[in-house]
Structures are given as C-alpha cells and as structure tokens.
Amino acid sequence: MRRLIPPNPLAQREELLRKVLPPLIMVVVLVVEVLISQLRDLRLEFWAHLLFYGIAGPTVTFFALDWIAEGARARASAEAELRGLYEELSRSHEQLQHIQALMRDLTEAGDLGAVLEVGARGAKRVSGAGRASVRLPGGLEATATGSAEAHHPLRAELLTGGWLELQLPRPPTPGDEALAHALAAEIGTAAQAAWQRTQDLMTLHSVDDSIRAERNMRRLLLRVTGTMAERAGADFRAVYLMDQDGVLRPEAVQVGHDALPPSGASVPAFAQRVAQAAEPLRATPDEAEAFEWGDSAIGFPMRDEAGLVGVLILGHAEAGAFAEANMPLLALMASQAALGVRNARAYLYSEELAISDERTRIAREIHDGVAQSLAFCAIKLDVVARQIHSDPERAEAEVRAAGALLREQIQEVRRSIFALRPINLEKYGLLDTMRMYVQDFGEQNKLRTALDISGEVALSKGDEAILFRILQESLNNVAKHAAASSVTVTLEGGPCWLQLRVQDNGRGFDPEQISGRVSSAGGLGLTQMRERMESRGGEYAVVSEPGRGTLVEARLPQVG
C-alpha cells in the first residue's frame, strides 16, 4: 500500500500564486488603465499613473518577494530537520548494532564474572558513557572506563538485585533513562542465567563428589536423591533398582527427613511405566495418588552402558509442582546416580572377592605355616617320648627346639592377628590411626618405631584407605622378613602430593628377585601394592639392597 504524504501548505500557496497572480495583475492593470483613461485631464492621468504604479507595484513586489523568502526559509528549515533526522537515525542504527552485539556477547559469556565484564563494556559502548559499572549482591562487580570525562551519574536496578551505573558526559535525558533500564534488564537476565548455570554445575559437582566418596549403596542414593530433591523442591524421593532377575525392587525411600525401610515399600505402577518407557515421565493424577505422599510425581530412568539400572522418583504434595526447566538437569543427575550404583556394586563385589581371597590365604597360611609347624612339633614330642629314658640329653634338646618353634609360631599368629585387626579410619582419621598403629606395631614386634608427620593431608576417603593399607603391608613385611631393630615412618604433605616413606635398618633384599613376595597379613605382594597405587594416580617404589635395609615410598595426589 502506498503511503499518503500530507500536503505542504507553503507549496500549495506558491502553486496558487503562480497560477493566479499573473492573470490577476493583468486584470488589475487593465481595469486601472481603463479607469484612468476616463480622466480628461492630463495632469490627473499623470498623478493617477504615478500613484498606481508607484504604490501598487512595489507593494505587490514586496509581498511576492516575502513569500519567496518564506518559502526559502521553510525549505532550509526542512533540510536542517531532515539532516538532524538522518543523524539521529544513524546514531540509533549504530546504537542498535551495539545493543545486538551486547546481547550476543552476553549470551556467549561463560560465567557470571564474564557476564558482568561484557555487560559493563557493552553498556559503556551503547550509552556513550565515560564509565559504566555493574554490581551484584555479594560484592561481585565489573567496571569499564574510557578517556572521556563524565560527571552525570545514572543508575538502573538489575533484576538480580544489583545495579547498573553510567557516568554520562551530559545530564541524562528521559531517553538515556529508558536506555539504562533496558540495558539493566538485559544484563540482569544474562546474569541470572549464568548464575543458574553455575548452580547447575555446582549441583552436578556435588553429585559427582557423593558418587566418588560414598561406597554404601543406600547412603549414596539418599545423598544423590537428596541433592535432586533440594534442586527440584521435592518432599518425597524413592529409588527402585533392578535386581539380577530383571525385577524392580525398592532400595531407598524417604519422605521429608524420614527414611522408610525399603522392605516395607512396594513398587508403584508409575515406576514400572518409567522403566518400560526408558525416558523421564510425569505421573498422571491417578498414579500420583497411588504414592499416598503427594499429588505430583516425576520419574527418571537410571541407565548405564549395560542398560536399565533402576528408576528414581521425586514427589511433591502439590499438583504441578515440578518446573519443566529442571527436567534436563534432573535427568542428568539420575544418570550420574546410575554410575554411582554401578560403582557401589563393583565395590561390593570387589569386597566380596577380597574377603574370599583373604579367607583362602589365611587357610593356606595356617595349613602351610602354623599347621605344618605344629605337626612338626608333635613329631618332635613323639620322638622325645621314645628317647626320654634312653637318651635324656637328646630328648631335652628336642624339647627345647620344639619350644622355640612353638614360641615362633605363637609370635607369627600374634603378628597376623594384629595385622588383621579392623582399623576404623572413619572414626579416628588417617593421622591418629597411623599414630596408634605405628606405636602398637612397635610394641607387638619389639621394634623401635618413629613417626614423623609434616604438611597438610588432603586425600579422599578411598585414597586414605589405600595409603593406610600400604603402611600395614610395609610394616608387616618389616616384621616378617627384615630382621630389623628399628623402623621410621614419614608422612609428608605437599601442595600436590602426599608421600609415605617406610625405612627399616634390616637385612634388605633384591627387589628384582622378590617382587611378588606376599605378606602373611594382608596378602599383597610388592607388585600388587604398586598396581593399587597406580590405579589411584599414585606412585610406588621399593629401594633395597642386601645388608642395607629397605625403603618403601608411596605417593598419592592431593585433592585440589
């Protein structure tokens, strides 16, 4: 549709003058000449002509020139107005480009600090301010400055509770105020989105830490689902795991702060539907009512590479309580929980294997060590019974040998029992447990012991258990094989590594020839201890020579 341009009054008047004025002048001149010609006196005709042409002509010329000048002034004013409009449009276009660039940069900013820096620079560029500052509650702030002097502050509130302040080189206009509020709204929205992303990452990090640190299946699930429930605002959570027969069974159920016994809980039909769908679902009103804990529920399948691990369900007392925006994050956390379940099951399986191996080893050592020695003592005593009358001196020597062998085996049994005692790392912590163990070890084995601890210790629970097991095995090897009189244990914590050193003054050995030696207590050879350390990102080394004692060094990375 063509746009109708309103008529210009000045142009209409000029057009009218061009069409009407010449004929009108001619008519007036003719009329005046006719009238003057009626006069019979030449003097009167002269004065009539002089009066008419001396007054009417200049008057008409004056008004005509005035109209022409007014038109020129109007055109000049219109041209100036057009130039101003063009310059204003150019500034608006440039400002719009800066705003678009600012919005793009805000979208691409990776974290909250980057959002504030981008916002401050963009606000300064868009508004033409000499200085721009963005501040959030808590003291987080970014400032962009320029060379231009500015002494007129203009502040606008952000949606997140902070503010945007501009230092303008001129008094702020209503347009400046509107622009400042628009910029504050964009920066506040971007800051809120960045803060939400940061919260999501922190939540995932918390879940990941829970999975790494916790080996107890039920505590792990309650911790992970607790984080999810806090994130989603849920007041009921339950986990149903798939057993070896492919049947869902309740593993962890909690309402508010009260954990319910899983054995008394049934598997709802909604959990079965989530397992079959293999995707997040919302419960229907009938399914939600079946929980008896709320009017809304969402379910997430827990899957890993092998398939479905279980189903995780969150519930709330109010209908429609769960926001759609939280679903992707919660689904990702459910996947993380599936990895935690797999790790916990693998840990339980490895513990069962370790217990079975330990029982086999103890049985073998009893059979090969203590049992053989006791049988040998029994044979010696039978010999003594036959020789006691015929050869008393030989019988006495045999009794002494049997007694020495029995005392040696008693010491071996005591050493094994000491090494096998359960150590409560969680109760006492690594350092206190080490102090007690090293002291008891010296008393049990009649050795001089020294313990030197320096620096900070920052290991995960799993790494602490591995390091303490290395200490146990190393000291047990000292007692069993080194024939040492003293042993020194050093624990040194650095910014990146924690190093354990066990040094004895015993007879030493060639590590190349005895690398697979197994202790009598823990069942770990030197090769196995090295493998355990390397599996945790650590290092393990044994330095020894015959007659020069043995040094065991183990290093683990500190938790950052």
TrEMBL record:
InterPro entries: GAF, GAF-like_dom_sf, HATPase_C_sf, HATPase_dom, His_kinase_dom, Sensor_HK_TwoCompSys, Sig_transdc_His_kin-like_C, Sig_transdc_His_kin_sub3_dim/P. Its main location: cytoplasm. Keywords: 4Fe-4S, Cytoplasm, Iron, Iron-sulfur, Kinase, Membrane, Metal-binding, Transferase, Transmembrane, Transmembrane helix, Two-component regulatory system. It comes from the Bacteria. Its cofactor is [4Fe-4S] cluster. GO terms for molecular function: kinase activity. The chain crosses the membrane at residues 20-40, 46-65. Residues 361-560 form the Histidine kinase domain. It catalyses: ATP + protein L-histidine = ADP + protein N-phospho-L-histidine. It holds the Pfam family HisKA_3. It is found in: Cytoplasm. Its EC number is 2.7.13.3. Member of the two-component regulatory system NreB/NreC involved in the control of dissimilatory nitrate/nitrite reduction in response to oxygen. NreB functions as a direct oxygen sensor histidine kinase which is autophosphorylated, in the absence of oxygen, probably at the conserved histidine residue, and transfers its phosphate group probably to a conserved aspartate residue of NreC. NreB/NreC activates the expression of the nitrate (narGHJI) and nitrite (nir) reductase operons, as well as the putative nitrate transporter gene narT. This is Oxygen sensor histidine kinase NreB.
